[in-house]
Amino acid sequence: MKLKNRFLPAMLLFGVVALSSCEKSDQDRVTPEIEQGTISQILADSSKVTSFNYAGQTVTQINHYEKESGNLESFEKFERDSKGKLTKASTHNGSNHALLSEQVYTYSVKGTLEKTTSTYFNNGKEEYSTYASYDYTPEQNLEKKTVYEGTGDKAKAKSYTVYEVLPNGNYTQEELYVIDDKGQAKLFSTTTFSYDSNQNPFYEFAEPGIASSPNNLIAASTVVHGTKKNYKYAYSYTYDEAGKPVTQTVVKPNGNRETYSYVYGK
To answer: Which of 137, 146, 191, 201 is nearest to 169 (CA)?
Structure first.
């Protein structure tokens, strides 16, 4: 699942997928049960997202609102199987609820994510589709993700990402390779990550196929090799007595800051 850009990179690098259902009709039908110690709200400088946990951390919807007007800009829906695994995610236009994109998740007999198929729409018509396959280490850590464009025999590998992970489960590096029309792969960018020693509250909510780490991110640096440009993000936190972050401040490459506040179920 992909979150809106205004929530990146803070939430995505946290590995967050468990957020909210904010539509009144959903709230009228289902009484949310927020588990003790789990995220119940995320407050940002530009938006507010409320997180409800249904039937053991099953989440139905995330709403994104325009900063100035407060109108619903878009929303994302999620479907899970009886074991709680994410099977489908879709993004919709806020004004007319038109389908914008859809991701379908397929798992191996071992329970690991095997394939993600993504389809993108324009005015109700399919524009293009991609799919991704995943490889894992013997410890079931994500090792490689390969992205293909097209379907069936016409699908071609367009890129792949190789991951490095420490024994404690923190992902320290991603290398993105782009594949040209001749099938040759070239290193496009390298991203390195640093972490603190505190528990990442989003770790258990991580989207399948995302390199989620058990500790909180404090720095990320991406080098684009063709241009030699370096994009750096810095993250700082305040913590509660249990060591969980209650605020996170992100400093972006352009120097802009955004602060997120986290509220936990009691």
So the answer is: 137
C-alpha span between 149 and 160 (Å, rounded): 12
Beta strands 61-65 and 245-251 are: unpaired
Question: What pLDDT does residue 26 have?
Answer: 32
CA distance 197 to 243: 9
| Distance from the first to the final alpha carbon of the chain | 28
Per-residue model confidence as pLDDT tens digits over 118-157: 999 998 899 888 999 999 998 889 999 999 987 777 788 9
Do 230 and 216 form a contact (C-beta atoms < 8 A)?
Answer: no
CB neighbour burial string for 150-160, b if at least 16 within 10 angstroms, e if fewer: eeeeeeeebbb
DSSP state of 34: P
β-partners of residue 179 are 185
| Pairing verdict, β 86-93 and 125-136 | unpaired
Take residue 212 and report the two structure tokens written for it. 């989620």
Amino acid in the structure at residue 243: G
Q: Is 99 helix (H, G, I), strand (E, B) or coil?
A: strand
Q: Using the 8-state DSSP alphabet, how is residue 32 labeled?
A: -
Q: Which residues pair with 200 in a beta bridge?
A: none
Between vectors from CA 188 to CA 182 and to CA 192, what angle results, nearest 5°?
Answer: 150
Other Cβ atoms within 10 Å of 28 Cβ, number:
8
**Residue 125: both structure tokens together:** 């018509």
- The model's pTM is 0.75
What is the sign, positive or negative, of the torsion defined by CA atoms of 134, 200, 167, 222? positive
Q: Are 233 and 251 in contact (CB under 8 A)?
A: yes
